[in-house]
Design goal:
The chain is α+β, with helices and mostly antiparallel strands. The chain has one domain: 3-Layer(aba) Sandwich (Aminopeptidase). Helices cover 30% and strands 27% of the residues. A hairpin with a 2-residue loop joins strand 2 and strand 3. Helix 2 packs across helix 5. It is globular, with a radius of gyration of 16 Å.
């Protein structure tokens, strides 16, 4: 199962700012730098979204419950070791409103190879991938795309991955770094996500993009 950062079910008509038949790495990166992100609108047509109300998680505002703190001790965190497996988990056909198609896979796999897309993974002591997340890192922006956990072995694994991501993003310039999670959900709100009007988000994005990216292990 998955625990997405946002959901296509949540978008409003005004959140969709454009569509294109072309979709590649350069277009995707340009969109993130302008405050938009891609999500398939229909076969062969990519939608570009910039929500009127944008959800972010303040790096000093993540809520870690007592039970989540206990779960953290059950997993080993790895970064960028299982991109294909994380994407497969996020694209599980059993998830509601699945949106990760072949075009998304193709472009984000290339961005991963370029060191722009990153995964944060939670592994069990026996070496099984229990859950994780992936997103785009540009300057001081991390745009979360999706996260998942595996029922039975992955209790809280997506949340543990999120905690690890926040720890990775903290550091020099952390006050101005931006963790974008697209649309607000009750799940994200329980973890500390808040909404910003589009104009305020774009102002904060402009500041974040001037920051150096975090140092990712292995890069």
């Amino acid at each position: 199962m998955d625990s997405p950062f946002g959901s296509p079910e949540l978008w409003r008509h005004d959140d969709l700012i454009g569509v294109s038949r072309v979709f590649n790495e350069e277009l995707a990166l340009a969109a993130y730098e302008c405050g938009a992100f891609p999500m398939p609108a229909q076969p062969g047509l990519m939608g570009w979204y910039s929500p009127l109300q944008r959800a972010i998680i303040p790096l000093d505002g993540l809520r870690v419950s007592h039970s989540l703190r206990k779960s953290i001790r059950r997993y080993e965190i790895r970064i960028d070791t299982a991109f294909d497996d994380v994407l497969d988990g996020c694209a599980d056909r059993r998830r509601p409103s699945g949106w990760i198609n072949r075009d998304i896979r193709r472009v984000y796999k290339r961005l991963f190879k370029r060191g722009v897309v990153h995964t944060v993974e939670a592994w069990t002591p026996s070496g099984e991938l229990a859950g994780g997340l992936y997103g785009v890192s540009v300057g001081g922006l991390f745009a979360g795309e999706s996260m998942f956990y595996r029922p039975g072995i992955g209790r809280d694994a997506s949340k543990v991955s999120l905690v690890a991501l926040v720890e990775q993003l903290r550091g020099a310039g952390a006050d101005d770094r931006l963790l974008d999670v697209q649309w607000q959900t009750s799940h994200l709100a329980s973890l500390g996500a808040v909404e910003l009007p589009r104009e305020e988000y774009l102002q904060r994005l402009a500041v974040a993009l001037r920051l150096p990216p975090p140092v990712w292990p292995g890069h």
